[in-house]
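Archive entry. Fields below.
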Amino acid sequence: MSTHRKNMDRLLRGLMGLCSGITCLVLLMIIGYILYRGIPRLTWNLLSTEPNNLTGNIGILPNILNTLYIIFVAMIIVLPLGVGAAIYLTEYSTSRKLTNLISFAAEILTGIPSILFGLVGMLIFIQIGGLKQGILAGALTLVLMVLPTIISNTRESLLTVPRSYREGALALGSSKWHMIRTVVLPSALDGIITGCILSVGRITSESAALLFTAGFGLKMIGFVQALQSSSATLTVALYIYASERGAYDIAFAIAIVLMALTLALNLIASKTAKKIQEKRG
Amino acid sequence: MENAIHGLFLFCGFVSVAFVLLISVYLIISGIPAIHQIGPIKFLFGTTWKSGQNQFGILPFILTSVYGTAGAVILGIPIGIFTAMFLAKAAPPRIASVIQGAVELLAGIPSVVYGLVGMTVLVPGVQRAFHLSSGATLFSAIVVLTIMILPYIISVSATALRAVPREYEEASLALGANYTETWFRVSLRAAKSGVAAAVIQGVGRALGEAMAIIMVAGNVANMPGLFKSVRFLTTAIVSEMSYASYGSLQRQALFSIGLVLFLFIMMINWILHKVIRKEEQ
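PREDICTED_STRUCTURE:
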């Protein structure tokens, strides 16, 4: 090999190592810095109380609850819709054009930035629909956003269910709906779960779509009241504490909570995804 | 019974199509009036945005979004592709799984957390390094955007690189090329539409990002300069929506910005669609 080719080889290998190193280093630095700044402020009191202007206490319990509420409401609405759409695409649709149209629409939804979902959500659900800023309007907006995730994961998993299962059930005299309910859906359960976990992860880390739909409220209110009154999730609370109040230590403590949640969700999602791979392989 | 269920699933299938239509229609309906009232040329090419004095020119926002995205992509492509190449071809399995994990984690970090770390570490750093009065500049936003789009570029390109048929690489090696020559001249070329799709997705992400960059870009409606405080299309919406009063021209102009952003995103989706279809052929 000529020295030029040898040098080129070394240079390219060096660059590959360097760039991979940069990527990992950036992650380590971000996580390390968040832990360094956030841990001193991450106390049980912060996690278990609400903010109080009189005592000056700051607590993020309302925001943790709001995040859970919004996940709950959004998932209850989006899950049947998304799974239903996937079932239609794989089990019922006979027209190729229709299938393409629906997948194309889901593809477009995936590419739309969250700030536009926030804008449209505010228009449709609050200005036109007459809802007040709150968990319900926020959750409905998130339904628009995570629907394609549920559809595509369910669909992929439905496609792995062998044809022979379906034919067997039908041959035994089961109706189509009975066949789907008892044979197809149970075998596709892990894909549906993966879709759910990914959606929950996306909802947990979402902020731009929620600013004008779920709102900025930091106070503790009950679930029913929160549906229709301004309620900040953890991400929005982080933004408020960092940008508007300059309370960086609180913001970093919230960042730790968020990172722990997304990390856990990531781990579970990749575990179930691996399970599907094994089943397929 | 069976027909009713069929109808129900058909309905679910059409919900995503309806969502896309709903979003497009409402963005257009709410975006047009202000453009009409201000005048399309004055709105799109006006260089001053002063909502207090009814001056609504969004050229600074458009250019900032374009420059910011271009900057992030120019920095992100080499780092992303070298890392993807290392991940897909050169790295021993154990190191590859570490990098894979890092990439997944980077993708899972919520954008407000990127914004928080950016505003507490990067902004003061840039201020000191370049002797500026404030480090909240287009440059800081580009760095944050680069880190945010890296995981997408890496994982999509790595998937494309892994899918290159072994025979191509073996043929190249048999002809006397060494490994790096094979990877960068044969594999990369064979995977080029997959890599292009990765880059286009990165462009979409960068263009649509709002919360991370509103915290580091300084948020002043200047014409863009690398070390000036700037406002993007997305952050323009976020920063004024909360106080723009109902029915005012300012609020309508913000919806028009949303429409412009939507058109940009649709254009990128369209290009992505073409690239993917070309690859399928």
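CURATOR_NOTE: Chain A has a mean pLDDT of 90.
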